[in-house]
C-alpha cells in the first residue's frame, strides 16, 4: 500500500508587506529585548550615532509606535531580521492566547505553550489542562513559513491554593494567573524577589506532583497509556487546530495557505531497507546460521546467539518472610513454563538455551521490609560463593513498586543491586504485587517471564542476538543522560563502545560538568579499538547537540593518537511529546509510518521511524507498540565528511540497526541502545554508595 504521510505543520503566507518595528536603546514598559546576535546592518545604520559594539541588547515595541524613535521595515531576506520577525510572531502568539484568558508559558525549549482547560478528567482535587506548543520556522519543509503544532501532554492544577497547603517544601511549579512559576526558585535577583513578594498565595495553585499529592491524600492513579499514541496525538492536534486556529481572528495573524496540516513532500521521504535490521541468532544442530527480523517471533523457535560463558548457573531468592510461599509458584513458572500448552514460554532453560538450577543454601529471607539491608548484609557475610565455577543471579522480590509513596522504599532495590554487584552477582528485581496479579493471569505472565529470561541471559554475559549485517569496521560510542529531578542534577554515562555487530564493550559515567573526563573516556575507547582493528570511521551518538567545548578535547585526543579517520556526531532526540512528527493516513487508521522511513526535515536533520511495522505486513499487534520517531542531527568537524552522498544513509542505518539490540524487552525500541543503555546507567549508578566496581563496567547488570 502506498504511504500517505502528513505532518503536524501548518503553512502560512509571507506578509504582503513586511512589518515596521520601533526601536529603542533604553528599556521601557511593554518593550522586548533584541539580542546583539540579531543586530543587522539596518539596525546599526539607524543607531549610527550610538556605539553598539559593547551593547548586549536593544529594545523594541514591535509595531507599537514610539514617538521620535527610529524604526525599520524588516527585511525578511536578511537572516538576522528574519529572526526578529520570528520573535514578533511569537509575541503575537502569546498576546493572542492571553487575550483569550488561557495560560501561556514557555516550554522547555523556549517555544510558546498554551494550556487548554479540559471538559473531562477534572476532580475535586485538580483541574486538567491539555498543553499545546508552537514552533515557528521558515521554509524548512516547504517554501512558506511553517507553524509546528505539538501536543505536549497534560498537567493537573490543584484546586487547593498555596495559602491552604501546610508543607510548602513539597510545592514545586504553580499556576498564577495566566503564567506558571517555580515556588522553590532561587531569590537571587531583585526581579525575582519583587515577583515573589507580590504573589498572592490564595491565587497561586500548585501543579500536581507525586510527593505533594501523597501529602494531601489525593488519589494517585497509574497512568493509562493509549494503545496507539499516534491516534491520540493526531486527534488532539486536529481538534485543537479546527477549534482554535482555523478561525478568522487567528488567521489574521497566521494566514494559512490551507486549513489543514501539510503533506510531507515526496522528495523528503526515503526508506532504510528492513533487511539491514536482520538479526542473527544461534546456529541450529547442523551448523546453519539462523536469522530473523523480529525477536519476539524468533525467540519462540530459535536459540540465542551466544550463551553466558559459564556452564554452571545458579539462581537464588532474596525475599520478605511473608513472600516465602509465593517463591515456589514463581520459580515453577520460571523453570517449567506457563499455561498448559506452554506456547510462548516453555521455561527459562528452553527459552534462552541455558542450564540453571537453584542454590537453596543462598536464599536470603528478611523480616523488616522497610529496612532489609542490615539483615541481608549479615546473611550475605555468612555465605560462601563458588565464583570460580558458578555464575549466580539473585531474584529480589520487592514489596514495593515504582509508585510507592516513600522514596526510601523505592530505592531499596538500588541498594540491593549495588550490594550484590560488589559480590560479583547480578540481580533481577521482581515486583511482588505485580507478580501475584500475573500468576493469576497466566496468559500475560508468560510474556513478563520472556522479558525476565531475556534480561537475565544478557546480565549473565550472554548475547540473545546480534546484527547479521556487519560489513563495516566502525567504532560506535553512545552518550546518554538522566536527570535526577530530586537533586535537579544531570548524570551522563558514556563510552559504550560497540563493535559494528552491535556487541557491547564497556562504559563509564560522570557528572554533567565533567566534560574533560567524558572526552577522556571517549578517546580511550577510540584508542583501545584502533589498537586492535582499523576503523573506517568513529561515530558518537550523543543525547543532545554536542557543544564545541565538549567536542574540542575529543578532536585533540584523536590528533594526539595520529588518527585521520572521519568523526561523525549524531545528536539523537526522542520526540515523545514535542516537536515534529509525521503520520501515515494509508494504514488502516493506525497512522504509524513503516519502520525505516526517514524524512529530511532540514539540512542534515532527520526524523527516523523505528518500530516493528514492516512493508507488506498484514497484521500488527497493539502490544508491539507505536513508538514515535526520533530526531537525528548529523554533523562532523571534518570539512569533507559529507562528500560521499551515501554517508548520511549509512549513519541513519546504523541508528536503525542499534535500535534492534535492546535486551531488556522483546518490544521494538525507537531509541538505539547507544543512547538507551547509557541513560539506564546514568539513572542507577550515581545512586550507588561506592560507584560501580571496575569489573562490572563491561557487563549489562543494569538491564
Model description:
The protein is an alpha+beta fold. Among the domains are: 281-291 and 467-574 and 634-702, 2-Layer Sandwich (Nucleotidyltransferase, domain 5); 307-460, Rossmann fold, CATH 3.40.50.2300. It is 27% helix and 24% strand. The protein is built from 18 helices and 31 strands. The chain has a 9-stranded mixed β-sheet, with helices on both faces. β23 (474-484) and β24 form a beta hairpin. The longest helix is centred in the first third of the chain and has 21 residues, at 79-99. The chain is globular, with a radius of gyration of 28 Å.
**Largest sheet, strands/sense/barrel:** 9 strands, mixed
Biggest sheet: strand arrangement:
14-29-30-31-27-26-23-24-25
Quote the average pLDDT: 88
CATH class of the domain at 281-291 and 467-574 and 634-702: Alpha Beta
Q: Looking at the structure, what is the overall shape?
A: globular
Please indicate the percent range of residues in DSSP E strands (runs of 2 or more).
15-25%
pLDDT below 50 for ≥5 consecutive residues: which ranges? Answer: none
SS-derived structural category: alpha+beta
The CATH architecture name of the domain at 281-291 and 467-574 and 634-702 reads: 2-Layer Sandwich
State the total count of DSSP E strands. 31
Number of helices: 18
Classified in CATH, the superfamily of the domain at 281-291 and 467-574 and 634-702 is Ribonuclease H-like superfamily/Ribonuclease H
Helix content: 25-40%
Q: What's the gyration radius in Å?
A: 28 Å
> How far is the N terminus from the C terminus?
38 Å
